[in-house]
Structures are given as C-alpha cells and as structure tokens.
From TrEMBL:
The keyword Coiled coil applies. It comes from Rhadina sibilatrix. The keyword Transferase does not apply. InterPro entries: DUF4795 (IPR032013). It comes from the Eukaryota. Residues 7-73 form a coiled coil. This is QRIC2 protein. Keywords: Coiled coil. Residues 1-140 form the DUF4795 domain.
Amino acid sequence: KMLFESVEKLQKEKADQQEMLAAMDLKADKAALRTKVDCSQFEENMEQLDDRMQELQNQISAQKEHWNKVQQQFSDAMEEKLDREELKAFRRRLDDAWSRNIATLETRLLGDSGAGFKKQLPVPFTCLSCDRMLTMQVPGQ
C-alpha cells in the first residue's frame, strides 16, 4: 500500500520530459558559462583600468603644468628682450625708414603722371671712334 502511494505521488510530481528539455535549453550551457566574465574579475579589471586612467590624467595635468611653466618663461624672456632700450631705438629707426619709404613712394605715384621722364644726358659728348669731345644740341631744349 505504501508502495502504491509513493508511485502515485511520483506520477503527480514527476516532470514532463518535454518541459524538462525546454527548461534545460533555457539554462546556460556550461561551455558558454566558462566564457562569461566573473563579476569579481570584472570589478578587479575595472579598478585597474580606473587606476590607469587616473595615472594618465595625473601625467597629463603634470605635462600641462610643465607646458604652462615653459610658456610663462618664454613670455617673460620675450618681455625682457622687448623692453631693452636698443630694441626701442631700432624700432624707431625702422619706423622712420618705413615712413620715409612710404612718403617717397607716394610722391612717385602721385607726382608726375606723364608718359615719360626727362633724363639728363651726360654733358660732355665724346665720339665713339676717336674719343674727341663734341658739342651737340639735345632735342627739346
């Protein structure tokens, strides 16, 4: 009698074979499970990555501070060079020469706008063959 009761109980509670196969398909395959990352390993790797990123950020900020320092030194050196009296005098001479050249150019451009310029010929003319002095009348005089 106890044997029949346990058989009936097992039949009621037994799993259907189809349901069992479907459930096994849903569960993770052991080979696929090995390829998954362990949570603790993932966190450890993320901590290492975070430490490395922090280290790189510190290096970048140190490099930026060094660059700013060098730039400031360069700027100070340029300021010292530009404040020297020799450079001020040289700049004044350059400005004067520049303004003279501009004025000369303006007088040339705005001056005589004729088609040609009168050019003075050398006064003592000499013969090409014998080098004797000649007196000649220049046309237009």
